[in-house]
Specification:
This protein has a seven-stranded parallel sheet, sandwiched between helices. A hairpin with a 2-residue loop joins strand 6 and strand 7. The radius of gyration is 28 Å and the shape is elongated. It has ten helices and 19 strands. The protein has three domains: 51 residues, no CATH class; 55 residues, Arc Repressor Mutant, subunit A; 185 residues, Rossmann fold. Helix 1 packs across helix 3. The protein is of the alpha/beta class and 330 residues long.
């Protein structure tokens, strides 16, 4: 994801066609950084790598001359690609790297290191973060609900308890079908005059014995793997409601991509929930950040409050606050 834009084409991709040659130019096939001539063999042993060097082409046209682009190096003379591969190994080993630390280690400037990280980011090998880079996760696939209930259970409980303190008697709230929102539901049993709209079968079942809570569950297709209800009927029913607060628990929370989910139909229901809510509150443990799922639900610019746990990375906290999100850590 990332902060890096499209890199401009550098001098490394210059045209290396011979300017004065008897070779028929129709026999050339051009690629981004190389040129091949039909019936011509490059004598690699004669190619120099200095800025002003030339390469003589052997074979049937021994007089053909081609200019060779200079090889990018750092202050220590290390070739850029070699340095980038070492940086990539460090990211894979440690999980994250910092620009200032790399600049010292490779005896080069912070600008050069940022360019290295941007290049690796563009190639999908690392994920740029504030002040450095991290190892990108693959697109996260949806896990069965029983597996998600066990994952990071302690963090979800703390988040659920904190989120419940933001809910007042008499309000109308939305809880999506996530396992973190299930922990919120467990904290609501003593509320009075509360109205809960949900597409979560497990959440509706959890609140059956909550006497002061009225539950509205949308209609549609039941998805057993997520204990949720989705589909066009669910979206149409939600359009008839209005809510004070929505508690959203996306499967992926990448700062650049936004909050995302693993099932397209369910994300459409989540979007319908967002559209009828006055306040959006994301509840997600730290493991979900810097991770993407298939379909985007909302960018972080639409999220009012984020509730996560205390292990959330410092650079992620900074970026969330920069985007205007109120951040609470449980």
């Amino acid at each position: 994801m990332g902060a890096a834009g499209m890199r401009r084409n550098s001098g490394r991709n210059r045209d290396i066609r011979p300017q004065h040659s008897s070779v028929d130019p129709r026999n050339y096939f051009y690629f981004p950084s190389f040129a091949f001539a039909s019936g011509v063999t490059l004598n690699l042993g004669k190619i120099m790598t200095n800025r002003n060097s030339i390469a003589r082409v052997g074979g049937s046209h021994p007089e053909t001359i081609a200019t060779v682009a200079p090889i990018e190096t750092g202050l220590d003379g290390m070739m850029a690609e070699e340095r980038r591969m070492q940086i990539l190994q460090m990211v894979r080993s440690a999980g994250r790297v910092k620009v200032n630390e790399l600049a010292v280690q490779f005896n080069t400037s912070a600008v050069t290191i940022r360019n290295d990280l941007n290049d690796l980011h563009q190639r999908g090998l690392v994920l740029r973060s504030h002040g450095g880079a991290v190892l990108p996760d693959p697109i996260h696939r949806e896990s069965p609900v029983d597996e998600r209930l066990k994952a990071h259970a302690a963090e979800k409980l703390r988040i659920g308890v904190l989120a419940a303190t933001l809910i007042n008697d008499g309000e109308t709230i939305i809880l999506d079908s996530g396992t973190t929102t299930l922990e919120i539901a467990r904290q609501l049993k003593n509320k009075q005059g509360l109205q809960v709209i949900t597409n979560g079968v497990n959440i509706a079942a959890e609140l059956l014995d909550a006497r002061g809570v009225q539950v509205f569950i949308v209609g549609g297709t039941v998805r057993g793997e997520s204990a949720s209800i989705s589909g066009r009927f669910a979206e149409q029913m939600l359009a008839e409601f209005s809510a004070d607060k929505m508690f959203l628990s996306g499967a992926g929370c990448d700062i650049d991509f936004g909050v995302s989910g693993g099932n397209l139909e369910e994300t459409m229901v989540n979007r319908a929930m967002l559209s009828i809510s006055r306040e959006i509150i994301l509840v997600a443990d730290a493991s979900k950040f810097s991770r993407r799922s298939m379909a985007r639900i909302a960018p972080f610019s639409e999220v009012d409050t984020v509730i996560s746990d205390t292990s959330l990375a410092e650079d992620v906290q900074v970026r969330l606050r920069t985007l205007g999100c109120n951040l609470l850590l449980a």
